[in-house]
Amino acid sequence: MTTLVLVESPSKARKIAAYLGQGYQVRASLGHVRDLPAKKEDVPARYAKEPWARLGVDVAHGFRPLYVIPKAKAGVVKELRQAAERAGRVILATDGDREGESIAWHLAQLLGLKDPERMVFHEITPDAIRQAVAHTRPLDYRLVGAAETRRVLDRLSGYGASPLLWDAIGPGLSAGRVQSAALALLAQREHARLNFVAAAFWRVTARIGQPTFTAAVTHVNGQALATPKDFGPDGTVNPGVLLMTPEQAEKLVAFLKARPAAVQSVEATPFSTRPPAPFTTSTLQQAASIQLKLAPKQTMDEAQRLYEGGFITYMRTDSPGLSDEATRAARAAAQAAHGPDSVPERPRTYAPKTSTAQEAHEAIRPTGRAFRTPAETGLAGTQADLYDLIYRRTVASQMTDLRGTRTQVTLAVGRVTLGASGRVITDPGFTRAYQDEEPDPDEQALPPIQAGEMHDVRDASAERRTTPAPRRYSEASLVRALERQGVGRPSTFASILSTLATRGYTTVRQRQLVVTWLGLLVTQYLGRSAPDLVDPAFTAKMEADLDRIAEGQLTRLECLTGTWTDSLDPTFRRAPRDAPTLALPKLPGVVVGVRGGQPTLFGDGRLATLPPDLLPEDLTPELAQALLAGERVPARSRRTPKADVPKGKRQRKARGEPHTPRTPRRSKG
DNA sequence: CAGTGAGCGAGCTTCCGCTTGACTT
């Protein structure tokens, strides 16, 4: 009789099968095999009439979940059942994390396993697999309970809050613990930009000495010159600093040009920088975004192909750790390419930065006891670029520190103080293999210089600068922000972004994530009606609860009762069903609200549907007035909620109008 | 009389996390 070993991924199954050899059959579940019904038609007939059928969770009876086999998984389950019948023994070898334990339990249920045998391994080497097979354990039902609690909570909160949005804003909208927290981050940043008032200041620099270097004026008559950090987001300046007029700046330049500079002090401090850790899913997405200009989705698609081709380890991971074998391979690769001294004596080890990490997998790295160099892989195109990035990052992670000296020079021209900073690299260390970003081009190497010296001022100039608005998130930087807060998982980072886009909450402009009016309105509504969902702390609290469930200090029922029955449910019940409105400081006299499911501009007793491609930042007061005056207003005749619309406007028929709402009208509840 | 349009009511939408490959565009 053979032993059936069940894993999640088919690639993993092939590899393990090769290591286990005869007597073992290894099959893949392709992820979860059962789930709560997504919609009513997935609910079996005998439960369809139940009041909880829409949720798939019988809240009144201990939050009992109803599990069904999704259509897409029917074939897999059938095959696994047949394989299990033929096998003498079944070992559940799904991933060693919370969801993996849950999948193992579902499989045990579906296959009717009496005493389910569980094995877990964290690296795929012959040794690790043999060890794991020899040391199976029973299922961890507490961990399974934690996973189920997570699932039920996400269902109840998501399916509880989304209908509020249908009533208040429009049909088909969605809210959830992860997507709404992500959207709130974007909305917060967008509001910061909308409220931001830029301020101008002067930066005065001089070219000094031979060879020349650049120094910037820091003080005049002992008073500090305004720099960006002296300004508030409303454009006000810290009263203690000097904000020069153009005339003053010009005078200062003329003053500098006429006199030599005295070196007051030279401070040199050595520095060293450690290499970045091997890639996790989020850091890979971040680096591929910056260096290869890939969107997270593209990165994951290419990485999936590299994984299936056997070039890299699993690409959905939160662990930056390398196995001993991989550590040795990385060190060997570094030494082969950069010399025996390119690695420190002791291997480096890496641990995850976030406490929510589950660490079921290794870091993303080249496979094998000896890494194939990018040239040896025979890969081409984007796949080759991504492999190269992963290869270099992995090798660099075992190399020596970058070392150098930072020098800070203070100079004086009369009562004007200038500062110059420079950086000299004494040992490039790991940067020979990998660098996160291009080195700063402004970075200068200062010539040898001593306190007390006098140097000629060769030139001076003043440059008008403005304070920068808070930067928008890129897709990858949003993922990084979410991961830091413990929101979302490696397997979902890319899909969170696509959910936000599909709902019309965000668009991507020049590789930046931009929130739409709809996204702002949804966040505004949720902030009042479901504040937990826009708060990353909600996930943090949930994770803490789940850990306690896994450790047996909290029951599933206590957690769900406390979170749902005593908190979320009453909040949702009390939630207002009327549409949110946004008042914007730079748009006095107008308000953005909702009419017929569409973001709409209200003002002056008139209204206008906002064109869907008009982003919040692009709505100027002039444009708002033009829209309200009826220009480019899609005047599709539809019942108006309460705003009084001039009859003529409502009857203006639009032909071939570009902004026809795609969603059907729904009556207000 | 036929065609059109307004109005009504019923039914639907939705979560997160795990995995590929089958679909379009």
Automatic annotation (TrEMBL):
This is DNA topoisomerase 1. The active site is at Y314 (o-(5'-phospho-dna)-tyrosine intermediate). It catalyses: ATP-independent breakage of single-stranded DNA, followed by passage and rejoining. CDD domains: TOP1Ac (cd00186), TOPRIM_TopoIA_TopoI (cd03363). It comes from the Bacteria. Residues 2-126 form the Toprim domain. Keywords: DNA-binding, Isomerase, Magnesium, Metal-binding, Topoisomerase. Pfam families: Topoisom_bac, Toprim. Residues 174-179 are annotated as: Interaction with DNA. Transmembrane segments: none annotated. Releases the supercoiling and torsional tension of DNA, which is introduced during the DNA replication and transcription, by transiently cleaving and rejoining one strand of the DNA duplex. Introduces a single-strand break via transesterification at a target site in duplex DNA. The scissile phosphodiester is attacked by the catalytic tyrosine of the enzyme, resulting in the formation of a DNA-(5'-phosphotyrosyl)-enzyme intermediate and the expulsion of a 3'-OH DNA strand. The free DNA strand then undergoes passage around the unbroken strand, thus removing DNA supercoils. GO terms for molecular function: DNA binding; DNA topoisomerase type I (single strand cut, ATP-independent) activity; metal ion binding.
